[in-house]
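Help!! Second protein's tokens look totally different from the first
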Amino acid sequence: MGNCYLYKIDLPNDYVANKQKNPQLKNKLFNFKSILMTTPLKENDAHSSRRNWLKNAAVLGAASMVAPSLMANTQNEPNKKMSSFQPIRLIVSTYSYWHFDPVVYPIEKVIENAARIGFDGVEILHRQMENETIPYMNKLKRMAFDRGLSLPFLSIHQNFVEPDASKRKEHVQHTLKCIKLATQMGIPAIRMNTGSWAGERAPDYYETGIQKPVSGYTDKEAIQWVIDSMEECLMEAEKAGVTLCLENHWGLSSNIDYLEEIYNALASSPAMGLNLDTGNFVGDPYPQLERLMPIADIIQAKTYYGGGEVYDLNLDYDRIAKIMRNANFTGYVSLEMEGKEDSETAVPKSYDLLRKAFSI
């Protein structure tokens, strides 16, 4: 009689819920269980034992690779439903120290400041990087590591709202390059923009978010341009293990119906994500935050000490924290201090404000 071996199979936390909605998942994902539960071995047959062991190991390895993709292809569920009792991880964007002034504030100094103040990590603004060489990127990564800081987010710029397909392609190529930069620095997520129509913005643009399409084109066409361009980027992001987090960053994404339409069209990709900027909503931000928080992966939290560089908001972070907790948000919150006050004093104030609001 052969020996019987029992294998432990770790199921995804949301397997039961997904199985109820997608009964085929059980058959697709676990047809291999009958192979694994028992493995008869001929007594005193070392060669047979080794062949069976290798066969089972291969099946287990294949299962571990297949399971995530099968889960990703099921109807996407908000992945923030698990409860967490740990404090929100608070990071600081290097943009907090540099608002596109002529003299660039060094990222190295931001890393040092972040460690001293008590942040958990640093978001890197791509345009603030001194260069894109491997030694420079490795230096930033090592500086963060030595100080116990994470580098979870790379913020980049692109514009897919462009009638000229060749120009959209340039922005796709830029994004693909930045995926490689993020991979080199060990950064798991990238901030993405939809982009906006060319042309002069209306005086009330930051109140309405409305910008007229270029003559001869429509917002509907632009939405499809964004989806098509993002799809191309997501294919490479999936291979690299980098999440592309689309942000409500003005332009087309000022309309959260558009933003949600684009997100939903791409949500089946395991590399698709959503970034919510608390300061970029048109009108009352709180109902919009409540609507989108269940699918958010990361949040950029604006403060405006000394008055805003472009506009000024009085955001209620106690209320925002409650919205986050109700949605079981467990991701990073990145400070973007966008006020005119000196960042050396405004960033620590912002840290205290956010740390208090987001504490458990």
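Here's the second one for comparison:
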Amino acid sequence: MGLDIRIPLGLVFLITGVIMSLYGMVTRHSSIYEKSMGVNLNLIWGSLMLAFGAVMFLIGRRQRWQDNPVTPRPWERDDVEKKSSRSGH
């Protein structure tokens, strides 16, 4: 299948994380963080979302185990070996 859900999910988290992190950096010494006891939640959660989005996007983009009939995925190797032994190849 051509679309891996990790790619658009990663992009959504990347974009949201960048926006939140930038907002947290710009408003670092603002009075809006008095309600959260001085903790810059925008910067913290923005960074976490950015990291999660990067991981999802990179995992979705890796080309290592694509649908390749010559090189099956590790968890499919047993099935391929059983089928080839039955057919006599």
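Reply: Different proteins will give different token patterns, so don't panic. The chain has one domain: 6-87.
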